[in-house]
Amino acid sequence: MKLSSFAFIVVLSGALCAMPALSADKSITPDGKPAPSKPHAKPGSKAAQEEEAASKTPYATVRDVFSGDETVAGEQVAFPQSNPSVKAIEITMEPGEVSQWHQHHAPLFAYILEGEITVTYEEFGKKVYRAGEGLLEAMDVTHQGENTGEGPARILAVFLLGDDGVATVAEDNPGANKNKVE
């Protein structure tokens, strides 16, 4: 059976209308940062009152640095089930300094104390982090950091260790074995 052009267009347009609507990915903001997981509640609503009560602290001045449950690579954070511990280190990188390629096999919260770093993620490209920003670093994605600022970069790294995990695992350059002939 042969369909006329008009019948084909009618069938095609009907199929397209039956498809689910796709919308823009709102999980990433224009500057490449993850969007808030929950939009603010309507002022005066019960949800807004609960949000306000939950945000109260015993401190006079507080600034939210980070809140979320996914790494910058979209990995769901899973807390250690056995042998839980916390390890915090301060990393200082001089201008132009580049780290080794590596992964983190444990959840890592990082806070940029000073400067600017650019992290290149295998599969995801580059992201820039500046002083005052916090993030949940990628765990099972090979990446490398570079101080792309004018002065030293200082990073507070807080690892949630356990399950016999280690904070940082060195990795080969992602492109190192791609041209290898076997």
Describe this structure in words.
The chain is globular, with a radius of gyration of 23 Å. The strands form three sheets. Strands 1-8-3-6 form a four-stranded antiparallel sheet, with no helix packed on it. A three-stranded antiparallel sheet has the order 5-4-7, with no helix packed on it. The chain has a domain at 66-170: Jelly Rolls (Sandwich), CATH 2.60.120. It is built from two helices and nine strands. It is an alpha+beta fold. It has helices at 5-18, 46-55, and strands at 85-93, 102-103, 108-114, 116-121, 125-130, 134-136, 143-147, 153-161, 169-170.
Brief overview:
This protein is of the alpha+beta class and 182 residues long. Helix content is 13%, strand content 27%.
Provide the CATH top-level class of the domain at 66-170.
Mainly Beta
Straight-line distance between termini: 52 Å
Here the CATH topology of the domain at 66-170 equals Jelly Rolls
Report the average pLDDT across residues: 78
What structural class do the secondary elements suggest? alpha+beta
Counting DSSP H or I runs of 4 or more residues, the number of helices is 2
Q: Bin the helical content.
A: 10-25%
Q: What's the β-strand tally? A: 9
Strand content: 25-35%
**How are the strands of the biggest sheet laid out side by side?**
1-8-3-6
Order of helices and strands: HHEEEEEEEEE
CATH superfamily of the domain at 66-170: Jelly Rolls
Going by CATH, the architecture of the domain at 66-170 would be Sandwich
Low-confidence stretches: 1-30, 33-38
Shape: globular
> Radius of gyration, Cα only, in angstroms?
23 Å
What kind of sheet is the major sheet?
4 strands, antiparallel
